[in-house]
Amino acid sequence: MILYFYDGHIHVIPDFDGKVPGNASFSFEYLQVISNIRADMTAEVFRLGSNSPAAVLLDSVEQLEKRSPTANENAQRIRPNLVEAVDTCVKAAGQEFNPFWQKQLLKAASFGKSILELYNSDEFVDMCEKLRVLNAVRDYRIGLPISYEQYLRLTPERLIERLINRHEYLLAIRLSEYLRLPADKIYVHWASQKVKTSSEDDEAICHLIVQRLHGKQGISFESIARAAYDEGRAHLATQLLNFEPRAGKQVPLLLSMEEDTLALDKAIESGDTDLIFFVLLQLKRKLPLATFFRTINNRPVASALVEASAWDQDVELLKDLFYQDDRSIDGSNLLFREALKQPSLQGKIDKMRIASRLLSDSKDANVQSHLKALTEASQLLKIQEGLDKDLSDGVNFVGLSVNETIYRLIRSGYGKRASKVQSEFKVPEKTYWWLRLRGLVAKRDWGELEEIGKAKKSPIGWEPFYNEILGAGNTKLASTFIPKCTTLGVSERIEMWIKCGMVVKAGEEALKAKDISSLERLRTRASGNTVAEIDRMIIQLRPKK
């Protein structure tokens, strides 16, 4: 064991592995504990009588400062090993705690670099940067005498964390700027400590924090607000949250602070439906139902989202919502929807009866109209249930509208029953004729359609008959309706004849109208004997010479 005696204070610096090796070098009042590897490196430079390239290079710098001509001679003498000497001086500088020897070693390295034609200076620049950081934290006012190896293993980020924990905010910020590291955590920690320790009122603290942090990137006001809330300063926390730009950070804290309505408003302002749903779910769990409805009642977005999700997920909640808002029509519609899902006729009717009861007390015209529709729907259900029992052709009527019921009956060949449904529900005549036409065409009941065509008038005109029958592929029957389309122009009727493949008939239509230009166009579309017929018609219209 080697004993050293000092007049001043002794400061022991532990190595990164936690052990204190036997070798030690010292300067001023510091005792630097070093490893064997570092001892070899520094001994190579500082050992008395050392003639290593690094020691010679360091001596050359000292001679250069004295303006001695031997400086250049010494440098040239070690030129073959100059790269090694520069590297050793750079590494030795990292082991020094004394800024004077750091500078001397780096000067030596810089002098050696200037002689070399090619040298990668990255390690030199990197060492200068690290030593500047280390010297800053080793200052007696800071008191972090860490070694170079400790700094490498600690990393700059964790060193700054240590400075933050010691409330050395200014140095931490300057080091972050120097090392090009984000400084947001430093500002947030400072602000959090401010709200915890300051005795000023909430408004003054909030103003100070916002003023200091204005324009700083990455600041989490949510973290500062949480610190304020944990300190029992809920009002200050709420004020600070107003400056948090991310609603996803604001809302959870507001909920934990029991600021339910404010949390909901912030979520709605964000426009994030997932966040709004999250708040609504939390409020529904913690608030009485009546309070929950009052909360969302004057917030249309929240109310609409609750209603939209409840249609598929919580029908009972939807019923309560409609009842709370006095929306009797919406409530009856919901019950009507449930009625259609009931397996039995009686179940359907019972649900409709309840739906009607919701509307019975109102004198509003819209409500009464809806009540009438419900009554008719109940009546229709009874008729449809009877049709399903009486008819054995596999057609299900329950759940269909009045128009669909009539159409299905006509298509299935039950015209009298369809007419009865029309009469009971006062279906307009035009609507009924359309349904009858399409039902008969779908059934391909050409005979019935031919009989209808013998009538003098049609409430829907005769053109729909032509179009529907032609679309079904019966050109012969469709053509019988062309002469009845008296409201159409000549050119339209000509085109109708052509679509039926009756060019001669189209020619006769043009001849009757004395339209020679249409006849000439028809001639280009004619073939076979039809050409002669069209020519004959054209001759009839041309003036005789």
Outline:
Belongs to the VPS16 family. The protein is built from 32 helices and 3 strands.
Description of the structure:
- With 545 residues, the chain is mainly α.
- Among the domains are: 1-181, no CATH class; 400-481, no CATH class; 488-545, no CATH class.
- It is 69% helix and 2% strand.
- The chain contains 32 helices and three strands.
- It has a three-stranded mixed beta sheet with strand order 1-3-2, with no helix packed on it.
- Helix 8 (156-165) runs antiparallel to helix 9 (169-179), helix 10 (184-197) runs antiparallel to helix 11 and helix 12 (221-230) packs antiparallel against helix 13.
- The longest helix has 26 residues, at 365-390.
- The chain is elongated and about 135 Å long.
- It starts with 10 loop residues before the first strand and ends with a helix.
- Mean pLDDT is 82; it is low at 17-37.
Fold blueprint:
Elements: E1 11-13, E2 24-27, E3 30-33, H1 36-46, H2 53-65, H3 70-77, H4 82-95, H5 99-115, H6 122-138, H7 148-154, H8 156-165, H9 169-179, H10 184-197, H11 202-213, H12 221-230, H13 234-241, H14 247-256, H15 260-270, H16 273-286, H17 289-297, H18 300-313, H19 315-324, H20 328-341, H21 345-359, H22 365-390, H23 402-411, H24 415-424, H25 429-443, H26 446-453, H27 463-471, H28 475-479, H29 490-499, H30 503-512, H31 516-525, H32 529-541
Parallel strand pairs: 1-3
Antiparallel strand pairs: 2-3
Helix pairs in contact: 1-4, 2-3, 2-4, 2-5, 4-5, 4-6, 5-6, 8-9, 10-11, 10-12, 11-13, 12-13, 14-15, 15-16, 18-19, 19-20, 20-21, 21-22, 23-24, 23-25, 25-27, 29-30, 30-31, 30-32, 31-32
